[in-house]
């Protein structure tokens, strides 16, 4: 005798198999690591004088690897007119940082350097003033910032070189990329924190004969980018 299976039983089996497969797929997707929310950026505690004013929140962090680039000049000079000068009258002066900032997944976020402020935000004094600059690696949106406050870096671990200070820098210029990219243009403040290395050499700039000598000092730091909290923002 032939064993016949009713059509409705076949349909029921297919539905059960499909439901089981769907449930397994959903469970697998839920179990996968989920990407971190873009706004979940948590800066470390900082001294009061370099805290960002209320009404702003960190939205981006970049881990910088690069150099602080110095040149030996008479002191004081037009770059550092109010500097405290050594007895020799000569000092290494920072002429630009040169760094790449990376995300937690090691993808490049921005580049960092000095450049003329092409798009001042009032009350910035004038266009083309040389400022610290960050340019987004993907959409080339750019911001310029002005140093307003510093705090000494914590003492380095034994055997490590001293570190450059932690900084607070209000944004004084912003520009969209050529195709309208605007990842950075809402930035209001930038903090340089968790620094390592980067301090100018203590020797090699002691006399007129040293003027013009350059020193490229490796450093690392975390840069935190802030923007205004929207009225409807719950974070």
Detailed description of the structure:
This protein has 235 residues and is mostly beta strands. The protein has a domain at 53-67 and 96-198 and 216-228. The protein is 11% helix and 39% strand. The chain contains one helix and nine strands, in the order αβββββββββ. It has one helix at 7-31; strands spanning 56-74, 90-102, 108-116, 130-136, 142-145, 149-151, 166-175, 187-197, 214-228. The chain has an eight-stranded antiparallel β-barrel. Strand 2 (90-102) and strand 3 (108-116) form a beta hairpin. The longest helix has 25 residues, at 7-31. Residues 1-38 have low confidence and may be disordered.
Can you list the strand order of the major beta sheet? Answer: 1-2-3-4-5-7-8-9
Task: Please give the number of β-strands.
Answer: 9
Write down the overall mean pLDDT.
86
Q: Summarize the amount of helix as a percent range.
A: 10-25%
Helix segment tally = 1
What are the segments in which pLDDT stays under 50 over at least 5 consecutive residues? 1-38
Order of helices and strands: HEEEEEEEEE
Oligomer: single chain
Shape: globular
């Amino acid at each position: 005798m032939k064993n016949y299976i009713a059509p409705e039983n076949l349909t029921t089996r297919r539905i059960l198999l499909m439901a089981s497969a769907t449930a397994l797929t959903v469970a697998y997707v839920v179990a996968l690591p989920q990407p971190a929310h873009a706004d979940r950026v948590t800066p470390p505690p900082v001294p009061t004088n370099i805290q960002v004013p209320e009404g702003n929140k960190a939205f981006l962090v970049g881990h910088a690897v690069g150099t602080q680039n110095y040149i030996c000049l008479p002191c004081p000079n037009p770059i550092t007119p109010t500097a405290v000068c050594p007895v020799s009258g000569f000092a290494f002066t920072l002429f630009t940082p040169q760094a790449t900032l990376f995300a937690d997944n090691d993808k490049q976020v921005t580049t960092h350097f000095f450049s003329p402020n092409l798009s001042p935000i009032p009350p910035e004094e004038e266009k083309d003033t040389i400022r610290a600059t960050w340019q987004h690696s993907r959409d080339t949106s750019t911001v310029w910032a002005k140093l307003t406050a510093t705090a000494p870096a914590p003492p380095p671990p034994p055997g490590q070189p001293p570190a450059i200070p932690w900084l607070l820098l209000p944004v004084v210029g912003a520009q969209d990329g050529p195709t309208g990219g605007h990842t950075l243009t809402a930035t209001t403040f930038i903090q340089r924190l968790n620094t390592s290395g980067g301090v100018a050499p203590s020797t090699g700039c002691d006399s007129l004969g040293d003027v013009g000598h350059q020193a490229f000092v490796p450093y690392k730091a975390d840069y935190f980018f802030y923007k205004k909290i929207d009225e409807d923002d719950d974070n």
